[in-house]
Amino acid sequence: MDNNRACKMATRLASDALERRLSFFERLRLRLHLAMCDPCRTCKSEMKLLHDVLKQLQDKGGPDQSSLSDKDRDAIRLALQTTCNESVEQP
Ligand SMILES: [Zn+2]
């Protein structure tokens, strides 16, 4: 079983999907994995949620905008990926 690596791949693809358009095969791989992996499904929706929140902050152009640099966003994304991959046991 190579489940852990498959999960990491899926998490990365899910994260990439928020930043760019995935290729047909990437989407296929992601969907196939999500179809059989609950933790990654949860992880993907959390990622989407966070992404939407960040986007809203940016779109508003409020005082928070400048505090959220590309580096910050990358750090958050990385943290989320790590969390997703390590919290497979969580409900
Ligand atoms: Zn998985």
Number of domains: 1
Class inferred from helices and paired strands: mainly alpha
Hey, roughly how much beta strand do the residues contain? Answer: under 5%
Q: What pattern of helices and strands is seen along the backbone?
A: HHHH
Please tell me about this protein's structure.
The protein is 77% helix and 0% strand. The protein has 91 residues and is an all-alpha fold. It has one domain. Helix 1 runs parallel beside helix 3 (38-60) and helix 3 (38-60) runs antiparallel to helix 4 (70-86). The longest helix has 23 residues, at 38-60. It is globular, with a radius of gyration of 14 Å. The protein starts with a helix and ends in a 5-residue tail after the last helix. The model has no long low-confidence stretch (mean pLDDT 79). The protein binds zinc ion (ZN). Residues 6-7, 10, 33, 37, 39-40 line the site of zinc ion.
